[in-house]
Task: structure prediction
Amino acid sequence: MRVLGVDPGLTRCGLGVVDGSAGRARMIAVGVVRTPSDAEPGERLAYLETQLGEWLRRFSPDVVAVERVFADANVASVMTTAHATAIALLTAHKHGVPIVFHTPTEVKAAVTGSGRAEKAQVTTMVTKILRLDEPPRPADAADALALAICHAWRGSAAARVAALTPGGMP
Result:
């Protein structure tokens, strides 16, 4: 299964492509789309859409895994993240690629074994799982890879269960 992980953000949107199945993962690509904070919001969103479209065409993922927006006290930050998330959803839909969401806790648990892991622990485990020579930077890139790994592992396991269960998943 090929998964494009998207760690949505308007200033920095992490992207990571992983080929994987339960217990196995191989990095195909990693990067960050950056938009200038002084540009018009519509211009930034259009640029993000163009870049995501290029990744979808170039890497042909089976699914796009997006981090579910986490609402905290910083409403402005949540809104720009939600805008970037909407662009990821729209772009994947336009390319006919299914979208799945994972919470930060799910992703941390999948790659580290603990839903309360710190960012540094996630980056360390992503580096080990993918057998990378050095950690992906910035953290948005590592988070995107972690999302892709999480879905490759969990999604392939869910598909195996569905195949064994008459009529699909219960």
Remarks:
- The radius of gyration is 16 Å.
- Residues 54 and 60 are 10 Å apart (CA to CA).
- The helical segments are 41-59, 75-94, 104-112, 119-129, 139-164.
- The beta strands are 2-7, 12-21, 24-34, 63-67, 99-102.
